[in-house]
Amino acid sequence: MLESNLTRVSDLAFQTNLFYLDIDNSRVGIKTASPGAYDFDVNGTMRVQSDLEVGGDLTVSGNTTLINTTNMEVEDNMLLLNSTGSVGNDAGIMINRGAAGNNAAFYWDEDEDTFKLVVTTSDGSTVTEITDSAFANFKVNDLTANSFITDGITIADNAITTTRTNDDLVLNPAGTGGVDVSSSRIKNVSAPVAGSDAANKDYVDSQVSAVPTLGEFSFSGNKITQTASNADFELDNTGTGNFVFVGTSGVVIPSGTTAERPTAQTGIIRYNTDTAKYEVSQDGSTWTALRTEQTSREVIKDVFTGDGSTQTFSSPNVATAPENIIVYIDGVMQEPDQNYTTDGSTSTITITDEAPHADARIVVISGFADAQI
């Protein structure tokens, strides 16, 4: 009885279609009496509680494929989504984050022809279009792209461009860092408007050209040199303003020996290192020492005796103008420039009328004025 049932020439059914053997086509059906075009046809759910190895293609015709594994390994090096070529549908990878409206997706946006990495309110049932809630952060090491677009700038090739009208392009180093252009030029800089704006070369050149020429002067450190040979160094103040030296230090005037005196000019002043005195010229020809402190004057009397022939008498005390001394001959006061003259260069006094007679008493009183030098 068993042998006759194991060798069949006609179909064999258990409970009608619970297990069905299609003898003519060498097919097996589970819960179907018509295995169709499949060698093994299951009409219902099937569970494999151990490993399942499929030697050929695996075709799943249902709308949803559930894989309940901890980690899934796929040997194929290419995953094809939207294999039917449906037009107009977004496609990508979605991650269920366990909270409604807070899933993550990396997908191709069909409307914008753009890949997006977003947080989305869509879920696994979405077929056509994914709804973006916000863009998600994306962290990589190196990033290579033909262009890079943010909400405010576009980086394309070697150009950085702001995308919002009239926005500044801000380069903001952290802390005390600066903007380093590695010794390269910064080109196409406009003329400055605000005080903190950078200036281009044309603007700087125009400002320099507007500065009055420096003439015959050179500048080195804190020194200004007049380069024209033997020319005066002139400071000219327009109007009634004064020349004012500010500060708490002092003014050092030219100094030198008597032999190094320049040509006298009215108003010139210098320090004489031989006499240790400041000296000026008031008349444009002679030099007069300046008194730098108040002292009592010393009136000096010189007495000479006439011999009847001598008219010129010498004394260092008479090196001044005739009107600055008093001369008496035998008690009679003489008139300056009429009865006597002086020569400041030789410290002499000359009686002009005639030589005082023998034994005449000649008294010269001086010291009333500073000597010319």
Q: How are the strands of the largest sheet arranged?
A: 1-2-3-4
Characterize the largest beta sheet: strand count, sense, and whether it forms a barrel: 4 strands, mixed
SSE order: HEEEEEEEEEEEHEEEEEEEEEEEEE
Structural class: mainly beta
Percent of residues in beta strands: 25-35%
The number of E-state strands comes to 24
Give the overall silhouette: rod-shaped
Low-confidence stretches: none
First and last CA, distance: 165 Å
Number of helical regions: 2
Q: What is the helical fraction, as a range of percent?
A: under 10%
> What is the mean predicted local confidence, pLDDT?
87
CA gyration radius, whole angstroms = 60 Å
Note down, in words, how this protein is organized.
There is one protein chain. The chain has 373 residues and is mainly beta. Among the domains are: 11-42, no CATH class; 91-135, no CATH class; 253-295, no CATH class; 300-366, no CATH class. The chain has two helices and 24 strands. The chain has helices at residues 2-6, 201-209, and strands spanning 12-14, 19-22, 27-30, 40-42, 91-95, 103-109, 114-120, 132-135, 147-149, 153-156, 159-162, 217-220, 223-226, 255-256, 269-272, 277-280, 288-289, 300-305, 312-314, 326-329, 332-333, 340-343, 348-351, 361-366. It has a four-stranded mixed beta sheet with strand order 1-2-3-4, with no helix packed on it. Strand 22 and strand 23 form a beta hairpin. The protein is rod-shaped, with a radius of gyration of 60 Å. The chain starts with a helix and ends in a 7-residue tail after the last strand.
